[in-house]
Amino acid sequence: MKTLNDLYRKPFAFLANRYEAYQDGRCIGSGDIFSSILSIPQGRNIGFDIQGDVPESMSNHFLLFADFADSDILVDRIQYGRLYNDLRNLDKRIPIVCNLFSNMNCIRFALPNPLRIVEFYGSYGEIQM
Protein backbone atom coordinates (compact mmCIF):
# COMPACT_ATOMS: atom_id res chain seq x y z
CA MET A 1 0.00 0.00 0.00
CA LYS A 2 1.27 3.47 -0.88
CA THR A 3 2.01 6.12 1.72
CA LEU A 4 2.36 9.89 1.42
CA ASN A 5 6.16 9.50 1.41
CA ASP A 6 5.84 7.14 -1.58
CA LEU A 7 4.03 9.90 -3.50
CA TYR A 8 5.86 13.07 -2.45
CA ARG A 9 7.73 14.63 -5.40
CA LYS A 10 7.28 11.43 -7.40
CA PRO A 11 5.19 10.55 -10.44
CA PHE A 12 1.91 8.83 -9.70
CA ALA A 13 -1.32 7.72 -11.31
CA PHE A 14 -4.69 8.11 -9.62
CA LEU A 15 -7.59 6.11 -11.07
CA ALA A 16 -10.78 8.05 -10.35
CA ASN A 17 -14.28 6.59 -10.44
CA ARG A 18 -16.25 9.42 -8.77
CA TYR A 19 -16.01 13.18 -8.31
CA GLU A 20 -17.63 15.88 -6.17
CA ALA A 21 -17.37 19.65 -6.74
CA TYR A 22 -17.98 22.31 -4.09
CA GLN A 23 -18.39 26.08 -4.10
CA ASP A 24 -19.29 28.25 -1.11
CA GLY A 25 -19.64 25.16 1.09
CA ARG A 26 -22.24 23.41 -1.06
CA CYS A 27 -22.03 20.60 -3.57
CA ILE A 28 -22.43 21.94 -7.12
CA GLY A 29 -21.78 18.68 -8.97
CA SER A 30 -21.05 15.02 -8.48
CA GLY A 31 -21.15 11.75 -10.33
CA ASP A 32 -19.39 8.70 -11.62
CA ILE A 33 -16.40 9.24 -13.90
CA PHE A 34 -13.67 7.19 -15.49
CA SER A 35 -10.42 9.15 -15.35
CA SER A 36 -6.71 8.66 -14.86
CA ILE A 37 -4.89 11.55 -13.21
CA LEU A 38 -1.19 11.40 -13.98
CA SER A 39 1.38 13.47 -12.10
CA ILE A 40 4.91 14.13 -13.28
CA PRO A 41 7.36 16.34 -11.37
CA GLN A 42 8.91 18.83 -13.81
CA GLY A 43 11.86 20.66 -12.34
CA ARG A 44 10.56 22.67 -9.41
CA ASN A 45 6.92 22.32 -10.52
CA ILE A 46 4.50 19.45 -10.91
CA GLY A 47 2.49 18.67 -14.03
CA PHE A 48 -0.88 16.95 -14.17
CA ASP A 49 -2.63 15.25 -17.05
CA ILE A 50 -6.22 14.02 -16.69
CA GLN A 51 -7.18 11.36 -19.21
CA GLY A 52 -10.85 10.49 -19.55
CA ASP A 53 -13.69 12.42 -17.94
CA VAL A 54 -12.87 15.94 -16.72
CA PRO A 55 -15.67 17.55 -14.67
CA GLU A 56 -16.56 21.18 -13.96
CA SER A 57 -14.87 22.87 -16.92
CA MET A 58 -11.48 21.91 -15.55
CA SER A 59 -8.43 21.80 -17.80
CA ASN A 60 -7.16 18.30 -18.52
CA HIS A 61 -3.50 19.33 -18.70
CA PHE A 62 -1.83 21.84 -16.40
CA LEU A 63 1.28 22.70 -14.46
CA LEU A 64 1.10 23.88 -10.88
CA PHE A 65 3.49 26.79 -10.78
CA ALA A 66 4.59 25.84 -7.29
CA ASP A 67 8.16 25.58 -6.18
CA PHE A 68 8.44 22.46 -4.07
CA ALA A 69 9.31 24.84 -1.24
CA ASP A 70 5.60 25.75 -1.35
CA SER A 71 4.69 22.09 -1.00
CA ASP A 72 4.37 20.34 2.30
CA ILE A 73 3.72 16.95 3.78
CA LEU A 74 1.15 17.81 6.43
CA VAL A 75 -0.28 15.42 9.03
CA ASP A 76 -3.01 14.09 6.74
CA ARG A 77 -1.97 15.20 3.23
CA ILE A 78 0.59 16.44 0.75
CA GLN A 79 -0.16 19.91 -0.58
CA TYR A 80 1.26 21.26 -3.83
CA GLY A 81 0.71 24.89 -4.79
CA ARG A 82 -0.85 27.70 -2.80
CA LEU A 83 -3.82 30.05 -2.63
CA TYR A 84 -3.31 33.55 -3.96
CA ASN A 85 -4.54 36.81 -2.43
CA ASP A 86 -6.18 37.89 -5.69
CA LEU A 87 -7.92 35.17 -7.72
CA ARG A 88 -9.67 37.48 -10.22
CA ASN A 89 -7.08 37.31 -12.99
CA LEU A 90 -6.37 33.59 -12.78
CA ASP A 91 -7.70 31.13 -15.37
CA LYS A 92 -10.73 29.47 -13.76
CA ARG A 93 -9.93 26.14 -15.50
CA ILE A 94 -6.42 25.78 -14.05
CA PRO A 95 -6.08 24.45 -10.47
CA ILE A 96 -3.90 26.39 -8.06
CA VAL A 97 -3.65 23.79 -5.26
CA CYS A 98 -3.56 19.99 -5.18
CA ASN A 99 -4.01 17.88 -2.03
CA LEU A 100 -3.17 14.16 -1.84
CA PHE A 101 -4.80 12.69 1.27
CA SER A 102 -3.35 10.04 3.60
CA ASN A 103 -6.50 7.92 3.29
CA MET A 104 -5.19 7.22 -0.24
CA ASN A 105 -8.63 7.38 -1.85
CA CYS A 106 -9.00 11.12 -2.59
CA ILE A 107 -7.17 13.80 -4.56
CA ARG A 108 -8.44 17.39 -4.37
CA PHE A 109 -7.88 20.39 -6.63
CA ALA A 110 -8.73 24.00 -5.80
CA LEU A 111 -9.73 26.14 -8.78
CA PRO A 112 -9.96 29.95 -8.76
CA ASN A 113 -12.38 32.56 -9.99
CA PRO A 114 -14.71 31.67 -8.25
CA LEU A 115 -12.88 29.55 -5.69
CA ARG A 116 -14.16 25.98 -5.84
CA ILE A 117 -12.97 22.48 -4.97
CA VAL A 118 -13.07 19.36 -7.14
CA GLU A 119 -12.43 16.07 -5.34
CA PHE A 120 -11.72 12.83 -7.18
CA TYR A 121 -12.25 9.48 -5.44
CA GLY A 122 -10.59 6.23 -6.44
CA SER A 123 -7.20 4.61 -5.93
CA TYR A 124 -3.54 5.01 -6.76
CA GLY A 125 -1.96 2.88 -9.43
CA GLU A 126 1.52 2.48 -10.83
CA ILE A 127 2.82 4.88 -13.45
CA GLN A 128 5.05 3.64 -16.24
CA MET A 129 8.02 5.90 -16.97
Shape: globular
Q: State the separation between the terminal residues, measured CA to CA.
A: 20 Å
The percent of residues in helical segments reads: under 10%
Number of domains: 1
Number of strands: 9
Q: What's the gyration radius in Å?
A: 14 Å
Order of strands in the sheet with most strands: 4-3-2-1-9-8-7-6-5
In DSSP terms, counting alpha (H) and pi (I) runs of 4 or more, how many helices?
Answer: 1
* Low-confidence parts: none
The main pleated sheet reads as: 9 strands, antiparallel
Beta-strand percentage? over 45%
Structural class of the helices, strands and pairings?
mainly beta
What's the structural blueprint in terms of helices and strands?
Blueprint: H1 4-7, E1 12-23, E2 26-42, E3 45-52, E4 61-64, E5 72-73, E6 77-81, E7 97-101, E8 106-111, E9 116-125
Antiparallel strand pairs: 1-2, 1-9, 2-3, 3-4, 5-6, 6-7, 7-8, 8-9
